[in-house]
Design goal:
The protein is of the alpha+beta class. It is about 30% helix and about 30% strand. The N and C termini lie far apart (about 65 Å).
Length: about 200
Amino acid sequence: MRTTRTFRTALLTVAVAGLAATALPAAPAAAAPAAPTFLSAGQWPASLTPWTAGPVHKGLPEDGSVCTAGTVPAKGTRHRDFRTELDTGARQTITVAPTTAKATALAAELRTALATCLDRLKEQEPGLEGVSRYHGRVNVEEGAHVHSIDTSYPEAGSTDIGLHSVGRDGRTVTVLEWGQLGDLDGAPLKGFRKTTGTAVAKLH
């Protein structure tokens, strides 16, 4: 009989323990990581007219990006366009890669795409002339790099300047594009470097 009582006691102990475990509040589920933050309109270099920020869209822009089209994956990517009342526009694209290693590889591919962009444009557009320059690293998070592409069509007498940058924070990569009519002398390179630093710093 002692064995029976011991067995019953053991069952009761297990049952009480089970009830106690059931009564404990469930541990809160881990919160999903916050989505990377985009630049605001006022964080772009000052222009003659105020910047206006468009909505944030998932995926790649329909019209593509001149230098990085075909490099950025649609999955994990969002973008936002900005404009002024004059001939100045900008775009920020943010991609969250599955791993840090893949983000590192994507950032390297994007830097190559910017470095080779002018040569590819010349192949596509006969008569196009231009100068591509690398303007160094911005020391923020895992780093950012700034490029400029100065293009012209001598026959048409038109010139365009584009400033571009690629930066990374962990497994998040951002690309900034800024463009207007004119040449590099009239572009806010110093301000664009500051904007690049701000963009990468506020991703997370």
